[in-house]
Amino acid sequence: MNVRLAPWWLLPTLFACSGGGGGGSPQLDYGSAPLLLRAGEPIVLAGLSAPGSGFVATPPLPNGLQLDAATGAISGTPSSVSAGSSHVVSGMVGDRQVQAVLQLAVGAALPAEVGWLEPGFAIERFATLTEAPGKFAIAPDGRVFVTERQSGVIRLIDASGALLATPFATVAVTTGSHRGLLGLALSPQFATDGLVFATATVPAGSGKPERSVLYRWQEQGGIGQNRVTLLDDLPVSTINNGGALCFDGSGMLVLSLGDAETPASAQSDASLAGKLLRIDPATGLAAADNPQSGNRVFAKGLRNVWAMTIEPGSGALFAADNGPADNDELLLVQPGRNFEWGAAPGTEFGALSGLLLRLWPDVVVPTGLAFARPDAADWPVAFRESLYMGLYDEEIVLRLRMSGALRTEIDDEQRFVAMVPDGVRNKPVDVLRDGDGGLWLLTFAAIYRIDRIR
Question: Which residue of 121, 226, 368, 432 has the fewest C-beta atoms within 10 A of its own C-beta?
């Protein structure tokens, strides 16, 4: 097992100080905040500087941790998960008894595929995948839907992490790096309507050429029934097919379409390429309050959006657009805005220009976006106010602390998870949050859940 030790400044400290009044005897103070540890990671906490004796912990410390009977120092490597608990540590200094309360919890050890995780959090492998996925979605009952991008199969994983043998649905797809099953989303009312949506690139047939389509199913007993083609004849190419799906705060479905390798199409009103469409999920028609009545286009001038998410407080729509060989972007998407991909050099759009929040000069390949839940009360404030972003090329999940009325100000930028490089197996493919506040990560080989150690 690889040993991973959190930086010393992130670990609680065991203080030794002179007490006031009663003769100035040293006192133990473990602080009021819980000590959040992970199994397999060693800790060393200094004890009293003055000599003492007989220090004990009641109840005993979790397995793997030792208490120095002479100083109250704590060291060792916790060996198993332990729920939050309080321990009274007491001992003698001279003829005077001293004691302190230690609160701690031990989370799961980091899987071998994870090289680093923010201290105070635990990550566990929820399911191992046998086929390379494209996107995933979490149902209110804890089941997980995941697409096998090249096989055209949508799989269902039960709440315990078991991959069900019977596919939820199968679609005939074309294959290639930007082809296959591309997007996946569950209805906001999935618990009652059971509706599942997916985008795919499909082969020529029935008098139609190769194209992108948007499908809808109704889940019944773990199987997709009553398939409907909501949108057909959408742009397609070898690369830059977009396909991301996201429900906004009003229940409308947003679909991204790449420029299909023709940048000028992103500016052309005669093409849907390079656009975000916003539709009524019941009919596939344009949402009634779209920028232009009867027009499905919500925003344009985009190259290849693979990830979108809604900020839960403001309802603002965020998207990540992939540049050609540089200039990956994080965007705030507002109605009718033009993000200028495919525009002639020097073209200015004035008030209709889209808002660029972050530009990466180098390729990072953003593949997933998710805001933390503001009601996840046990997450520190900074982590509840953050946007989490999977960066495929960097093999990390990046945390961007956001502020402002629409969360458009980036106040801080830190890595949150770093995966161990292993070809493409551990690269982030998608990031989601669940109804309980946990963060989920999809890679080519597995699904992981991340949450605060409790």
Answer: 226
The architecture CATH gives domain 8-107 = Sandwich (2.60)
* Cα separation, 253 vs 197, whole angstroms: 9
Written as six digits, the tokens of 130 are 């046998």
Task: Look at residues 337, 322, 298 and name the one whose alpha carbon lies nearest to residue 240.
Answer: 322
In tens, the pLDDT along 299-314 reads 999 999 999 999 999 9
For every residue of 297-346, DSSP letters joined together read EEEE--S-EEEEEE-TTT--EEEEE--SSS-EEEEEE-TT-B--TTPPTT
Q: Give the chain's largest Cα–Cα span.
A: 94
Check whether 372 has a pLDDT greater than 50: yes
CATH of the domain spanning 114-452 = 2.120.10.30
pLDDT at position 24: 59
Distance CA 322, CA 157 (A): 30
Task: For the chain, give every domain's residue range.
Answer: 8-107, 114-452
> In whole angstroms, what is the distance from residue 229 CA to residue 216 CA?
6
Closest CA to 334 of 405, 394, 399: 405
Which tokens is 269 given?
A: 């009103």
Residue 45 confidence (pLDDT) above 50: yes
Percent of the chain with pLDDT over 90: 83
The encoded tokens of residue 7 equal: 């930086």
Question: Could you tell me the pTM of the whole model?
Answer: 0.92
The answer to whether 212 and 204 are in contact (CB under 8 A) is: no
Residue labelled with tokens 């989920």: 440
Question: 18 by DSSP, 3-state: which?
Answer: strand
pLDDT tens digits along 69-87: 999 999 999 999 999 999 9
Read off the pLDDT band of 435 (50, 70, 90).
confident
- pLDDT tens figures, 270-328: 999 999 999 999 999 999 999 999 999 999 999 999 999 999 999 999 999 999 988 99
The alpha carbon of 65 is separated from its chain's Cα centroid by a whole number of angstroms, namely 32
Q: What is the C-alpha to C-alpha distance for residues 232 and 214, in angstroms, rounded to an integer?
A: 7
Question: Where do we find the tokens 């004035």?
Answer: 350
Q: What are phi and psi of 444, to 5 degrees?
A: -70, -15
